[in-house]
From TrEMBL:
<dbReference type="InterPro" id="IPR017896">
    <property type="entry name" value="4Fe4S_Fe-S-bd"/>
</dbReference>
<keyword id="KW-0004">4Fe-4S</keyword>
<dbReference type="InterPro" id="IPR050157">
    <property type="entry name" value="PSI_iron-sulfur_center"/>
</dbReference>
<keyword id="KW-0411">Iron-sulfur</keyword>
<feature type="domain" description="4Fe-4S ferredoxin-type">
    <location>
        <begin position="31"/>
        <end position="64"/>
    </location>
</feature>
<keyword id="KW-0813">Transport</keyword>
<keyword id="KW-0249">Electron transport</keyword>
<dbReference type="InterPro" id="IPR017900">
    <property type="entry name" value="4Fe4S_Fe_S_CS"/>
</dbReference>
<dbReference type="Pfam" id="PF12838">
    <property type="entry name" value="Fer4_7"/>
</dbReference>
<dbReference type="GO" id="GO:0005737">
    <property type="term" value="C:cytoplasm"/>
</dbReference>
<dbReference type="GO" id="GO:0046872">
    <property type="term" value="F:metal ion binding"/>
</dbReference>
<protein>
    <submittedName>
        <fullName>Ferredoxin</fullName>
    </submittedName>
</protein>
<keyword id="KW-0479">Metal-binding</keyword>
<keyword id="KW-0677">Repeat</keyword>
<keyword id="KW-0408">Iron</keyword>
<feature type="domain" description="4Fe-4S ferredoxin-type">
    <location>
        <begin position="1"/>
        <end position="29"/>
    </location>
</feature>
<dbReference type="InterPro" id="IPR047927">
    <property type="entry name" value="YfhL-like"/>
</dbReference>
Length: 82
């Protein structure tokens, strides 16, 4: 399942550089996560790095983009070419 950023985001800028897939970018009002690039850090780390650094805990799973760990790993391989 991809992650999403809720409207509790305070635009602190700490999540964007932590994303190994460059899935996080500034939106109109808050940061946004591209579900086509988000692998929940599967293939890179044991836990989603954006969630680890977020000071307001505003990055939950996105119920609109349900994916299994296998699907996330396939996306990781597709994105990285590994």
């Amino acid at each position: 399942m991809a992650l999403m950023i809720t409207d509790e985001c305070i635009n602190c800028d700490v999540c964007e550089p932590e994303c190994p897939n460059e899935a996080i970018s500034p939106g109109d009002e808050i940061y946004v996560i591209d579900p086509n690039k988000c692998t929940e850090c599967v293939g890179h780390y044991d836990e989603p790095q954006c969630q680890q650094v977020c000071p307001v805990d505003c990055i939950p799973l996105d119920p609109e983009h349900a994916e299994s760990k296998d699907q996330l790993m396939e996306k990781y391989h597709r994105l990285t070419g590994l």
